Please model this.
Amino acid sequence: MTTRIGVYPGTFDPITLGHADIIRRGAKLVDRLIIGVTTNPSKDPLFTPDERIAMVTREAAALGLDNVEVVGFNALLMKFAEKQGATVIVRGLRAVADFEYEFQMAGMNQQLNAGIETLFLMADVSLQPIASKLVKEIALFGGDISKFVSPAVREDVMARIAKTGTLGDY
Model:
């Protein structure tokens, strides 16, 4: 029997309750789910890649899922997925804008490797508005982010902002 391996890629800066929901649900659909923590040159990160990998590892462990692993990468997604032996890319969708972007990416990825499918999971209705970028902005301006991230991630974000006073200056 073939092992079904899925990759759930993202910057996870920071990991939110929406991400955790997709991890929990995605892990049910594959034998092994690899959370690929990557860099994105178009985003201004609050945390370093190593800090994000550690944060995602901690949060994934808290979900108690035996089939989830966290791996950092800085490469083309399809090359990373191929290296992991994945047959599925798991992506979360919050809104129509997400769908348009993700649909285009899925089409490009299919051109690169038609053997790897993209699986879209709709965000839980209560988690749809959550976006890492907005979480960081709310925290920067003194807002309460406890509805959007775990208590440990909230502490990480608040400590970083207290240390730097700004976003992205690590």
